[in-house]
């Protein structure tokens, strides 16, 4: 069976990934906050795989909680948003096969990671690892490169897809590590990288600040 990925985590099968998520679900009492950093990060990456992730995240994520059963006898996960609202999400849906749009967007992120990494390394070399939002000092393990000062990554990607005829016009090679392919047309890939570089306004946030940002 094929490997399955949640963020940077590789599982031998989709079933193994499901068991990892269920382990988090049953590690906490009903109604409690998921307060272990590793578990919280796993759920962040898991929610990113939901086909309605942007709507589920809304204004930003403050925390996750264990929600009481809504259908059947089993508990689930709930997003606690930064505006005080709450919404549930199905981890089973997150583990379903991603839409073509989601697959292409994942590949787009991978194609521009050199640009993002170069920005981070330049800030690090210049001794300016501080949050552009709060001014707090950051270290390499607690720093996120964010699009919070300009159009979001989703907006930039949708702009590009619109100029080339839609998501289906972007063909990908077969998946490789970590579960991603590449643009089959390398000239189109270069056009995407150029578009991203022109439109992206990058900045640094702490990992916690970035988690609280909306996904739109």
Question: What do you see in this structure?
Answer:
This protein is an alpha+beta fold. Helices cover 40% and strands 14% of the residues. The chain contains nine helices and seven strands. The chain has helices at 14-25, 37-47, 53-57, 91-94, 100-111, 113-125, 153-163, 186-199, 207-211; strands spanning 4-6, 9-11, 61-67, 76-81, 86-89, 143-146, 203-206. Strands 3-4-5 form a three-stranded antiparallel β-sheet. Strand 3 (61-67) and strand 4 (76-81) form a beta hairpin. Helix 7 (153-163) packs across helix 8. The longest helix has 14 residues, at 186-199. It is globular and about 50 Å long. The two termini are 34 Å apart. The model has no long low-confidence stretch (mean pLDDT 90).
Short description:
This protein has 216 residues and is of the alpha+beta class.
Secondary structure layout:
Elements: E1 4-6, E2 9-11, H1 14-25, H2 37-47, H3 53-57, E3 61-67, E4 76-81, E5 86-89, H4 91-94, H5 100-111, H6 113-125, E6 143-146, H7 153-163, H8 186-199, E7 203-206, H9 207-211
Antiparallel strand pairs: 1-2, 3-4, 4-5, 6-7
Helix pairs in contact: 7-8
Strand content: 5-15%
Strand line-up in the sheet with most strands? 3-4-5
Q: For the residues shown, what is the average pLDDT?
A: 90
Number of strands: 7
Secondary-structure element order, N to C = EEHHHEEEHHHEHHEH
Radius of gyration: 18 Å
Oligomer: single chain
Q: Summarize the biggest pleated sheet.
A: 3 strands, antiparallel
Instruction: Enumerate how many helices there are, as a single number.
Output: 9
| Contiguous uncertain segments of 5+ residues | none
Helix content: 40-55%
N- to C-terminal separation?
34 Å
Based on helices, strands and strand pairing, what is the structural class? alpha+beta
Q: Tell me the overall shape.
A: globular
């Amino acid at each position: 069976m094929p490997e399955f990925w949640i963020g940077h985590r590789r599982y031998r099968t989709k079933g193994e990934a499901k068991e990892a998520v269920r382990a988090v679900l049953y590690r906490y009492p009903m109604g409690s906050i998921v307060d272990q950093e590793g578990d919280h990060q796993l759920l962040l990456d898991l929610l990113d795989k939901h086909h309605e992730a942007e709507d589920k995240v809304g204004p930003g994520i403050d925390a996750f909680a264990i929600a009481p059963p809504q259908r059947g006898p089993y508990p689930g996960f709930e997003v606690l948003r930064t505006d005080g609202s709450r919404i549930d999400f199905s981890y089973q849906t997150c583990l379903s096969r991603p839409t073509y749009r989601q697959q292409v967007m994942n590949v787009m992120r991978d194609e521009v990671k050199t640009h993002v990494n170069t920005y981070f390394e330049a800030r690090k070399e210049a001794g300016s690892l501080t949050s552009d939002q709060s001014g707090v000092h950051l270290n390499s393990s607690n720093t996120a490169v964010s699009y919070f000062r300009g159009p979001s990554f989703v907006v930039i990607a949708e702009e590009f897809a619109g100029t080339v005829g839609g998501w289906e016009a972007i063909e990908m090679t077969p998946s490789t590590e970590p579960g991603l392919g590449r643009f089959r047309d390398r000239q189109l890939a270069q056009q995407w990288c150029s578009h991203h570089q022109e439109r992206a306004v990058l900045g640094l946030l702490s990992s916690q600040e970035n988690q609280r940002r909306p996904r739109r």
